[in-house]
């Protein structure tokens, strides 16, 4: 795979070349003038406006469209060469059969981008590597299937930690609602990936964080012991887990705690809250969405 990264792409769009390309399709000079005014509107920093002679304003609704117009010429060139590629904004991956072909394509395409499009290829971030070593929009290709990249998984883990802090004023139900709101969207983005185990890994980690919080809610070991026994754990298993030197994170992974708070506890009965235990919210939105996906 040839992974090409453009250096400061939005800051280096060449105005005259972009307007000339737009002129091929747009005959109304008023529209071209408005686009030109937007491109040259300047940047305000510390109360001072600095004029812009190149680049597009990041955050402007028009900038992504203009960026695609700029790189449409690159798409056409790659198609003309018969190359398999995937591009999103300024991220572009080109697929070839051999490392030697990849090196050749990297050199020729980089030269085309810099000489013809007047853009700069970031040589430090661009690379030639096997597909499973390259991430694209948070995903990577393993064999012939798509998987979530390692970095994206680590970012998701960090988000779970953020949503399940140790000290918080939020109730457990509010925490679960926040997790559902984030996770349904996150998993929806990665629904094209092939490995359900990666999603289950995030879910398992989230449940352990919540079990750890449930353990911490018990003020002392005796209260935790009684709670586990009340939830169906044998007295011996509860005692072995609770009356030890384990802290709450280690306790959250013990057999006794996972039996007391299994996967079904977070889901509820047909998605309904189990009213016999007032502290039990449900996590049905998340599990239902995953099962449908």
Could you walk me through the main structural features you see in this protein, from its secondary elements to its overall organization?
With 293 residues, the chain is α+β, with helices and mostly antiparallel strands. The chain is built from 13 helices and eight strands. The chain has helices at 15-23, 29-39, 63-80, 99-115, 150-163, 172-189, 196-217, 221-230, 235-242, 248-251, 255-260, 263-267, 284-292; strands spanning 2-5, 43-45, 48-50, 84-88, 91-95, 127-128, 139-142, 145-148. Helix 5 packs parallel to helix 7. The longest helix has 22 residues, at 196-217. The chain is elongated.
Q: Short summary of the structure?
A:
This protein is of the alpha+beta class. The protein has 13 helices and 8 strands. Strands 4-5-1-6 form a 4-stranded antiparallel sheet, covered by helices on one side. Strands 2-3 form a two-stranded antiparallel sheet.
N-end to C-end Cα span: 29 Å
β-sheet strand percentage = 5-15%
Model regions low in confidence, pLDDT < 50 over at least 5 residues: 269-293
Number of helices: 13
Structural class: alpha+beta
What would the principal axes of the Cα set say about the shape? elongated
Name the strands of the widest sheet in spatial order.
Answer: 4-5-1-6
User: What's the count of strands?
Assistant: 8
């Amino acid at each position: 795979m040839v992974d090409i990264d453009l250096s400061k792409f939005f800051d280096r769009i060449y105005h005259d070349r972009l307007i000339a390309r737009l002129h091929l399709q747009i005959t109304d000079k008023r529209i071209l003038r408005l686009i030109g005014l937007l491109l040259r509107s300047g940047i305000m920093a510390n109360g001072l406006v600095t004029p812009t002679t190149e680049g597009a304003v990041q955050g402007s609704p028009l900038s992504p469209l203009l960026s695609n117009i700029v790189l449409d010429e690159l798409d056409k060139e790659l198609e003309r060469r018969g190359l398999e590629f995937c591009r999103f904004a300024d991220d572009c991956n080109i697929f070839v059969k051999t490392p030697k072909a990849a090196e050749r394509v990297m050199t020729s395409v980089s030269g085309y981008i810099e000489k013809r499009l007047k853009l700069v290829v970031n040589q430090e971030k661009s690379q030639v590597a096997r597909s499973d070593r390259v991430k694209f929009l948070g995903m990577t290709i393993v064999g012939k299937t798509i998987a979530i990249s390692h970095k994206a998984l680590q970012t998701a883990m960090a988000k779970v930690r953020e949503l399940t802090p140790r000290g918080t004023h939020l109730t457990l139900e509010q925490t679960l609602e926040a997790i559902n709101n984030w996770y349904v969207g996150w998993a929806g983005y990665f629904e094209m990936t092939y490995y359900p185990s990666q999603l289950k890994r995030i879910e398992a980690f989230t449940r352990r964080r919540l079990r750890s919080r449930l353990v911490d809610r018990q003020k002392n070991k005796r209260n935790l012991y009684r709670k586990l026994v009340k939830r169906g754990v044998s007295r011996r298993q509860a005692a072995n887990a609770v009356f030890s030197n384990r802290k709450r994170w280690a306790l959250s992974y013990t057999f006794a705690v996972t039996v007391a708070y299994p996967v079904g506890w977070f889901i509820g009965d047909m998605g309904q809250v189990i009213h016999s235990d007032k502290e039990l919210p449900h996590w049905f939105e998340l599990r239902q969405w995953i099962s449908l996906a």
